[in-house]
Amino acid sequence: MKWLALFAAVPLIAWLPLPDFWIFQLNYIGLYALTCLGLVLLTGVSGLTSFGQAAFVGMGAYTTAWLTLNLGMSPWMTLFVGLALTGVSALVVGLITLRMSGHYLPLATISWGLALYYLMGNLDALGKYDGLLGLKSLSIPGPEGDFDLGQGRAFFVLTWLILMVAAMGFTHLLDSRAGRAIRSLKNGTQMAEAMGINTFRYKVTVFILAALLASVAGWLMAHFQRTVNPSAFGLKMGIEYLFMAVVGGVGYVWGAIVGAGLIKLMDDQLQVLLPRLIGTSGSYEVIVFGIALVLVLKYLPDGLWSLVARHLPRRNRTEDWTHAEALEERNKPCPGEVVLDVQNIRKQFGGLVAVNDICFQIKAGQIVGLIGPNGAGKSTTFNLITGVLPLTSGTVTFQDETISGLPSRDIARRGMARTFQHVKMIPDMTVLENVAMGAYSRSHRGVLSGMLRTNVAEERRLFKEAQHQLERIGIGHTLHELAGNLAMGQQRLMEIARALCADPALLLLDEPAAGLRHKEKLALADVLRQLRGEGVSILLVEHDMDLVMKVCDHLVVMEFGTLLTQGTPEEIQQSPAVRAAYLGTEH
Ligand code: ADP
Ligand code: MG
Fold first, then answer.
1. 313 is a domain residue
2. I want to staple 67 with a disulfide (CB 3.0 to 4.6 A). Which of 78, 191, 350, 422 is the partner?
3. Are 14 and 148 within one domain?
4. Domain's final residue, options 208, 233, 258
5. Phi/psi at 130 (nearest 5 deg)?
């Protein structure tokens, strides 16, 4: 409904008796906002900063310019040629640069942005720095001659309808299985990979989507201005696009339009105003933009749209999944079967041997406790088993398959789920959405399906599962809260619910009871026993000895990276070596 209203609003605005100049400005704003929208997805949502977006605009613009002028092709065809070219280029550039981390990615985007700029400026076929002139404006062929879209109201309707369609697609995407994966990219890849998500693939996908949108903007712009030249696609424009996205609100789809509008209008005003104030002409507006950017980043890091978003009511998801079909379950191993076999695993950090040739086994339906003082190497052992850290040596076998060397997402997909000692979640997503990510590897719908909303049935199944696991773990009432607002103990429980959504054969819990109240601990113990009854095996790292002794069938004790001893809880309680390790007494 909301979208229908927005779509209808576009032609209505074109009908309003606005001055032509306003429509002309709105056309520019629409063009900029298209590119900016891609940046919101790429930089704002996924945390991948790109200064090179203008180059993709150039690619769309030059493709249509060259093909329509030299080959006489219809612009309605060249659009797709431009998209194909941009898509392939973005794929190649993305594959090369997106593995870079930290400051390297922005630097790389600057360099290929510059490279493409100089390429456009130096190729004879592209008219060097003068560019290509004499393009036709877009027109729709009709029986009584072509209908020219020109630079006015008709062009406005086309541009803004494309913008609205893109905004709708992105909004839907971000609210889907693939979208949640994309929203996780900013918070590091460890958690997402542990859910079975291929984060690199999503980065490349987002990069291509943003580039395609820029390419469409370039195509429109070429026929709007009826000329293309490199200056509109250089680094300065790349920075300006990024600036629009940051000012408007990096994480918000509507921020793209606010940012594009504001910067375009400011740019126009300053170009007139500043030379008058200063007395000489020059690109002084860049300095003002710089200062404004610093101020925005300092006082409004989430951009202008965050001011609006704060006052919009947060929409609670309608709970329409009660009758959804349950997700398919894994075949669990038979009781007594060896589920996990850890043989001589070792991890060295430089000179420090954090895990020193540890061996143990977990059988189906067993709860094994891994205990030891702080720094003993328990969390590192977890990371080795789950593939978060590469092994220095040794092997890990999971359900008769060697998994050492596999990336953590492939291990997760085989039915191993975990929590982290330091909770890893997406704070600005609801508890329900966070937990639904746990069932990622039990579902399939991708980016396109998210955009087109053909994923509704699967989404319902995911949310049903998430709600079920949250209720089971005793925090069903937190469903619609933002995960970041939960108390520490509840965040831990949320992580367990998320891990359970994977329907794991083996569950690894790293200090799940830390920060829990007594009652919550009792409830946790009940859930663990219930899971064991269902055939789930559990590896538990925990400092609360009361809980450990109560629920575990077998204990493995570590100290300084080595295996001190293992046995039943009774045997361990009697062991002088363990007492010494914990109490620091001689034995
Ligand atoms: P535990 O979970 O038993 O408290 P950890 O597995 O976290 O212990 O740590 C074991 C040892 O390995 C500690 O001495 C810790 O400082 C060291 N360590 C853990 N992770 C790293 C790392 N990424 N780089 C270097 N040293 C590490
Ligand atoms: Mg630890």
1. no
2. 78
3. yes
4. 233
5. -75, -25
Tokens of 46: 């996924």
Confidence band, pLDDT 50/70/90 cuts, at residue 586: very low
**How many angstroms is it from 556 CA to the middle of ligand 2?**
14
Q: Which ligand is nearest to the CA of 561?
A: 1
Which ligand has the minimum distance to the alpha carbon of residue 389? 1
pLDDT tens for 363-420 read 998 999 999 999 999 999 999 999 999 999 999 999 999 999 999 999 999 999 999 9
Whether 529 and 579 map to the same domain: the answer is yes
Pocket test for ligand 1, best of 345, 348, 352, 419 (most atoms within 8 A of CB): 352
Q: How far is the CA of 421 from the centre of ligand 1 (A)?
A: 12
Is 302 part of a structural domain of the chain? no
User: Does residue 103 lie in a domain region?
Assistant: yes
pLDDT tens readout for residues 118-154:
998 999 989 888 999 999 999 888 888 888 888 889 9
> Which residues are registered as beta bridge partners of 417?
507
Work out how many domains the chain is built from and give that number: 3
What is the position in ligand 1's atom list of the atom closest to the CA of 558?
3
Cα–ligand 2 centroid distance for 494 (angstroms): 19
Distance CA 61, CA 59 (A): 5
Q: Best substitution site from 347, 349, 355 to test ligand 1's pocket, by max atoms within 8 Å of Cβ?
A: 349
Inter-residue contact 206 to 445 (CB < 8 Å): no
Which residue from 380, 386, 388, 509 has its CB within 8 A of the most atoms of ligand 1, so it is best to mutate? 380
Q: Which amino acid is at 462?
A: L
CA-381 nearest atom, ligand 1? 6
User: What does the radius of gyration of the chain's CA atoms come to, in whole angstroms?
Assistant: 29
Beta-strand relationship, 506-510 and 416-418 = parallel
572: domain CATH number is 3.40.50.300
Which ligand 1 atom sits closest to the C-alpha of 421?
2
Residues 404 and 481 in one domain: no
Would you place residue 583 in the very low, low, confident or very high pLDDT band (cuts 50, 70, 90)? low
Could you tell me how far CA 136 lies from the centroid of its own chain? 40
Same domain, residue pair 372 and 461: no
Task: Annotate 220-286 with DSSP letters as a single string.
Answer: HHHHHHSEE-GGGGSHHHHHHHHHHHHHHHTT-HHHHHHHHHHHHHHHHHHHHHHHHHHSS-S-THH
One domain, residues 379 and 508: yes
Using a 10 angstrom Cβ sphere, with 0-12 exposed, 13-18 middle and 19 or more buried, the burial of residue 72 is exposed
**Contact of 253 with 40, CB cutoff 8 Å:** yes
Give the predicted TM-score (pTM) of the model.
Answer: 0.93
Distance between CA 496 and CA 485 in Å, rounded?
17
Question: How many angstroms separate the CA atoms of 152 and 566, rounded?
Answer: 79
Where in the sequence is the domain holding 459, given as residue range(s)?
429-497
Residues within 6 Å of ligand 1 by CB = 349, 352, 354, 372, 374-380
Look at residue 503 and give its three-state secondary structure. coil
